[in-house]
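Design request, C-alpha cells follow.
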C-alpha cells in the first residue's frame, strides 16, 4: 500500500514582468514594423495620442528626466496625483526631422509593364487573353519555367480558354519581343540568345551567338580549349565573344520591382553613423515612429473621480487603458535605450574598423563581448544584432556582420575570420585566370601571409564568399 504524505520543496523561478515581455517583443522589430505597431496601438487604445505636449502641459519641464518614469495609477491615488502631464511623454523633446537622403524611385512592376506593352500589339481579344495568361505565368526574374503543354492545360482548366501549343508558342514569341530584352525565355541559353538578337551585328556578337547556340554546355563548363578546337576561333576572338556574353543580363525580370511586398523589404537603417574630424556621431532616428503619450483628457477624467456606478465602470476601463499605455510608453523608451547602448558598445569595440571601413580592421567579436560591455543578456544582444542595420560612410550593414569568431595567426595573435576571408578574396581576384589557384595553393599563399588554415576551411570560406572552384574560375 502506497504511503501518502506531505513534503516541502523549494523552487526558484524567474518570471518576466509585463514591461519586460513587451520590451522584448518590440526590440527585434524593424523601423517599418515598429512604425506600424505603434500606429496600431494609437488606434486601439483611446487614451494614447501622438501630439507633442505643449509648454502649458509641463511648465516645470526643467526637472530631471529620471523623475519622468511612468507610474502605476490607481483610483485612490489619482485624486491627489499632481504628477505633471509631460511626465507621461516618452521624452521632453520633439522627434527627429527626417533627413534628406537619396532614395530609389519606385519602378513599374514587370507584369504591369508587359501588360502595357501587350496593349499596343495588334491582337484580337482571344490572343490577348492567351498572352496575358502567359505573362501571368512568368516567374519574378522574367522566365517561363513551365512547359508549353502545361500552359495550354491551365488555360483550359483555369481560364476556360481553348488554345493549342502552336498558338501559345507563337504568342510567347511576341512577348519575347517586349522590354526588358530576354523576358519570356525558358532557360538561360534562350534568354542570352534573345538579348544578342537585338545587338548591333559584329564579329564578337556573331561568335557569342555561335557559342551559346552550339556550344553552351562547353561554355558553361568553361571548356574553352574545346570551343577553340571546334570553332577555329583565335584566342582573342574567343575573349571578345566571352566579354559580350558576360555583359548580358541573366535575370531580365530582376531589373524591375514586381510587388509591394518586394518594395517593402528594402532596408531602412536603424542607426546613422558619421565620422568627421576624428569624431563619431551616432544617432538613432525616430522620424517615422510615432511617439505615444497618454492623453490629458483621460488623465483629468481619472483624477476627477466617480460617484455613480456607471462612472466607476468607465473609470476602471480608463485606468486599465492608461496602465497599458504606460507600459507601451516605457517599453518604447527602453527599446531606444537598449538599441543605442548596444550600438555604442559595438562602435567602441570596433572603433578602428568604423574609422575607415577596412574589414581587415574588424576585431574578433562575439555576442558575449557586447553583453559584458552593456550588461544586457546575450539573447538581447542577439535580437538587436539579427534585426538591425546601420548606415555608415562606407555603406549600410547588418549589425550581425560585425560579429565573427577569432583565429590565431602564426604569431599567436587573434584575428577575425573576416580578415582571412578578405585576404582569400584578394588572392583570388589577383590570380591568373588562365591558371586559377587551387584550394591547396590558396592554403599555401595564406600560410605565407601568416594565416594558419586547413584546406577544408579555405573551401568553406570560398563557398561563403560565393566563389566557385578553380575549374569554374578558369578564363581564356
Amino acid at each position: 500500500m502506497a504511503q501518502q504524505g506531505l513534503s516541502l520543496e523549494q523552487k526558484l523561478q524567474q518570471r518576466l514582468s509585463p514591461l519586460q515581455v513587451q520590451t522584448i517583443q518590440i526590440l527585434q522589430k524593424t523601423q517599418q514594423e515598429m512604425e506600424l505597431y505603434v500606429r496600431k496601438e494609437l488606434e486601439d487604445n483611446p487614451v494614447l495620442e501622438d501630439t507633442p505636449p505643449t509648454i502649458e502641459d509641463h511648465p516645470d519641464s526643467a526637472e530631471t528626466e529620471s523623475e519622468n518614469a511612468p507610474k502605476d495609477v490607481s483610483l485612490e491615488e489619482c485624486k491627489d496625483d499632481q504628477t505633471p502631464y509631460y511626465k507621461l511623454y516618452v521624452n521632453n523633446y520633439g522627434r527627429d526631422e527626417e533627413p534628406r537622403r537619396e532614395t530609389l524611385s519606385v519602378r513599374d512592376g514587370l507584369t504591369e509593364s508587359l501588360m502595357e506593352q501587350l496593349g499596343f500589339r495588334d491582337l484580337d481579344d482571344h490572343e490577348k487573353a492567351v498572352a496575358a495568361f502567359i505573362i501571368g505565368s512568368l516567374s519574378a526574374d522574367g522566365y517561363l519555367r513551365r512547359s508549353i503543354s502545361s500552359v495550354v492545360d491551365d488555360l483550359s482548366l483555369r481560364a476556360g480558354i481553348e488554345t493549342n501549343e502552336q498558338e501559345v508558342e507563337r504568342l510567347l514569341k511576341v512577348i519575347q519581343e517586349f522590354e526588358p530584352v530576354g523576358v519570356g525565355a525558358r532557360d538561360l541559353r534562350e534568354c542570352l540568345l534573345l538579348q544578342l538578337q537585338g545587338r548591333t551585328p559584329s564579329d564578337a556578337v556573331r561568335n557569342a551567338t555561335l557559342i551559346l547556340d552550339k556550344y553552351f554546355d562547353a561554355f558553361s563548363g568553361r571548356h574553352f580549349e574545346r570551343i577553340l578546337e571546334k570553332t577555329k576561333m583565335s584566342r582573342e576572338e574567343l575573349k571578345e565573344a566571352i566579354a559580350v556574353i558576360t555583359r548580358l543580363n541573366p535575370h531580365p525580370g530582376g531589373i524591375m520591382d514586381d510587388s509591394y511586398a518586394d518594395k517593402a523589404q528594402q532596408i531602412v537603417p536603424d542607426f546613422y553613423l558619421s565620422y568627421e574630424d576624428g569624431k563619431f556621431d551616432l544617432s538613432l532616428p525616430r522620424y517615422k515612429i510615432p511617439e505615444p503619450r497618454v492623453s490629458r483628457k483621460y488623465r483629468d477624467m481619472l483624477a476627477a473621480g466617480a460617484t455613480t456606478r456607471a462612472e466607476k465602470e468607465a473609470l476602471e476601463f480608463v485606468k486599465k487603458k492608461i496602465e497599458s499605455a504606460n507600459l507601451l510608453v516605457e517599453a518604447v523608451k527602453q527599446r531606444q535605450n537598449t538599441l543605442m547602448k548596444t550600438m555604442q558598445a559595438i562602435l567602441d569595440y570596433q572603433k578602428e574598423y568604423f574609422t575607415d571601413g577596412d574589414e581587415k580592421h574588424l576585431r574578433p567579436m562575439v555576442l558575449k563581448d557586447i553583453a559584458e560591455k552593456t550588461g544586457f543578456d546575450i539573447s538581447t544582444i542577439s535580437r538587436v544584432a539579427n534585426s538591425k542595420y546601420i548606415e555608415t560612410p562606407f555603406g549600410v550593414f547588418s549589425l550581425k556582420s560585425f560579429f565573427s569568431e577569432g583565429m590565431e595567426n602564426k604569431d599567436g595573435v587573434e584575428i577575425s575570420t573576416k580578415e582571412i576571408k578578405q585576404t582569400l578574396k584578394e588572392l583570388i581576384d589577383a590570380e591568373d585566370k588562365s591558371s586559377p589557384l587551387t584550394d591547396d595553393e590558396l592554403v599555401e599563399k595564406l600560410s605565407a601571409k601568416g594565416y594558419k588554415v586547413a584546406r577544408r576551411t579555405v573551401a568553406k570560406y570560398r563557398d561563403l564568399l560565393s566563389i566557385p572552384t578553380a575549374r569554374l574560375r578558369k578564363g581564356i
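Comment from the thread starter after seeing the answer: thanks! Strands lie at 48-49, 271-276, 279-283, 293-294, 389-392, 395-398, 406-408, 414-416.
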